[in-house]
Amino acid sequence: MASTYSSLKIQLMTTGENSGTWGNVTNLNLGTAIEEAIVGSADVTFSSADVTLTLTDTNSSQTARNLRLNLTGTVAATQSLIVPAIEKVYIVNNGLTFAITVRNASGTGIAVPAGKTMWVYNTGSNVVDVVTHLTSLTLGTPLATAQGGTGTNSTTFCNLQSNVSGVLPNANTTASASNGASTIIARDSSGNFAANTITANLSGLASNATFAVTATNATNATTATNATNATRITNSGGWSVTPNSTTLYFNYNGTNVASLTSAGDLTVIGNVTAYGTV
């Protein structure tokens, strides 16, 4: 009876077969077939088309048997690497300029991005990720922002003027913009609203823009508004003072109660007491 072959095409000799050459067959099984499957690496060359790897009944060297497949050549679009439908682990190094999907003839497979290396498992009916869960992970270098990281391992707070774009994290600062208005609310490291920690620079704002600095649980909450060269300063207790052209308005809880012009004219809506006690 003739030899049979395993899924990795290791020659399985029958009793009494290969008399006098049994050692040669065994050496080829161990030194080529098994060694390729455990540590072997083979190049797979692409030329703008899918590539199909096959295995035949021989224990001599075969590309599809190797542990590592190094993809080389030229492609103009995403292609497929079709591997034999057997259970096997592959390390796939994609040295091409487009993603390559590693799959069986009937499976959906796994796309290996251009310039990346992936560890995949051939189940015999589909090719899937080897690793789908990690309990912990330590990186040798910081994860780039393009991959969802920060690009740095520093814990120092960044410069908000030069290092931040878009919406700031709510854990430290809330930022929003609507109709030309920008609002920043600062929090401390514990997530509480911070007091007396913001210096507002209003230069460069549009004439109809509003820059508001708000502090909660603070002794004094201040709102600075730059609108048509008008500035309003709001203090605790409901009082605000708003200059408008040549007149200064005194407001209490939304109602103007007095005004003072640049000519020195004072107008009040209530009584005026002279030489009283304040």
What is the structure about, briefly put?
The chain has 278 residues and is mainly β. It is built from one helix and 19 strands.
Structure description:
This protein is mainly β. The protein has a domain at 4-13 and 24-129. It is 6% helix and 32% strand. It is built from 1 helix and 19 strands. It has a 5-stranded mixed beta sheet with strand order 3-5-7-10-11, with no helix packed on it. A 5-stranded antiparallel beta sheet has the order 15-16-17-18-19, with no helix packed on it. Strands 4-6-8-9 form a 4-stranded mixed beta sheet, with no helix packed on it. Strand 10 (117-123) and strand 11 form a beta hairpin.
Key features of this structure:
5-stranded mixed β-sheet; 278 residues; single chain; 5-stranded antiparallel β-sheet
Straight-line N-to-C gap: 118 Å
Helicity, as a percent range: under 10%
Question: How are the strands of the largest sheet arranged?
Answer: 3-5-7-10-11
Which whole number gives the mean pLDDT?
80
Task: Provide the gyration radius in Å.
Answer: 37 Å
Outline the secondary-structure elements.
Layout: E1 4-5, E2 11-12, H1 22-39, E3 41-47, E4 51-52, E5 68-74, E6 79-82, E7 87-94, E8 100-103, E9 110-112, E10 117-123, E11 127-129, E12 173-178, E13 181-186, E14 210-213, E15 233-234, E16 239-244, E17 247-252, E18 255-261, E19 266-268
